[in-house]
Request: fold
Amino acid sequence: MKVAPRALLLSAFLTALAVTASAAPPPASVPVSTATIVVPITARATQPIDGDTKALAAELAQRSDAAKREVFALQRRHDATAFAPLRDAFQQRIEAVKREAQLDLLAIRLRHAQASGRADDARALAAALDAQRKLPVPALRALPAEPAAPVVAPAAPAVQKETGR
Reply:
């Protein structure tokens, strides 16, 4: 059995490379991570989705989409003005819409948990909803009227002096 010299050379090189790679510690500048990511496999992913879950998902999606549309409309109005008090009022309304949407989503989840008989989930959702409702909320400021842009008179043409000859 005759082995080509290149194959022997390549084999020896790869063996030496493997031995030195496994024996050499990593460089000091490269941090060594020992964290392991564990992804649990649940049986729920293979089970068919029941009607209650579909109804919950549809209702949550509908409320979330409505909130996104409202925030988008307010954001466009916010971005369209340069008047600072009006921008602040729009920003406050955007935050209020987001808060109301969050409360509504919790209330929807609570209602579905109660309807499906999940008492532990319902208690946790009710506590979260109460905690969110107890947070202080500033009163909405009235939208100030944007001042009219001042009329700027055209500048007078500059008179040039004639230079001497």
